[in-house]
Amino acid sequence: MRILAFSDLHRSVSSTRKVIEASGEADVLVAAGDFAIRGEGESDTVSLLKQCGKSVVLVHGNHDRPAEMAALCAEWEDGYYLHGRAVTLGGITFTGLGGEIPQRNEAEWNASESEERAAALLEQAGPATVLVTHAPPFGSADLQKDGSHHGSSAIAEFIRDRQPELCLCGHIHHSWGETDQIGRTWVQNLGPTVNWFDIK
Predict the structure, then answer these.
(1) Integer Cα distance of 61 and 100 in angstroms
(2) Which CATH number goes with the domain that contains 94?
(3) 0.90 cut: is pTM over it?
(4) What is the pLDDT of residues 129-152, one digit of tens each?
């Protein structure tokens, strides 16, 4: 399976169009959250992604409203909004978890989960071939400008325990494009660019 993955579009129509233009060779698109900016404008980019004619696996970011994301995906036959859920496409199981984990931003628009809730949602979702999260795992592709780690311990623990082939994430802009490995799991913080992965 050929996967085209990205994150943090933040209402950028131009970045979304670049993804769509590159999607012809993709079997599945993976979008690791933050379509909106501060709780507004998810549809600016999601509505465009609906036109790509491909299966799209997505989670919400901390800037997105989960209820709005669910509504946008409700009648989208090829859109799979995952939060504590999994879907199997072409024999590959995608498991998703959205939002900031743990909460660090106390703004009203910020969508987040506690580490405890995140662990429960991941356990509920079950095993993954590809783990799609907005937040990165703690200690991997999660460095802020000041050198501090802003990832999730629950996600890191799930990876160490379940060892999916990939963890595709975003959220920490300073770490866009960064990669790491946890056991056999390849972790990549994506950013709003075209990133390719092949899974057998």
Answers:
(1) 7
(2) 3.60.21.10
(3) yes
(4) 999 999 999 999 999 999 999 999
Pairwise CA distance, residues 150 & 118, whole Å: 15
Rounded to whole angstroms, how far apart are CA atoms 155 and 121? 10
Range of the structural domain that residue 47 is part of? 2-198
Count how many domains the chain has: 1
Q: What is the distance between the alpha carbons of residues 185 and 131, in angstroms, rounded to a whole number? A: 10
DSSP H or E segment with residue 180: strand 179-182
**Number of neighbours of residue 77 by Cβ within 10 angstroms:** 8
At 2, list the tokens. Answer: 């050929």
Are the C-beta atoms of residues 10 and 37 closer than 8 Å to each other?
Answer: yes
The pair of three-digit structure tokens given for residue 103, joined into one six-digit string: 């909460």
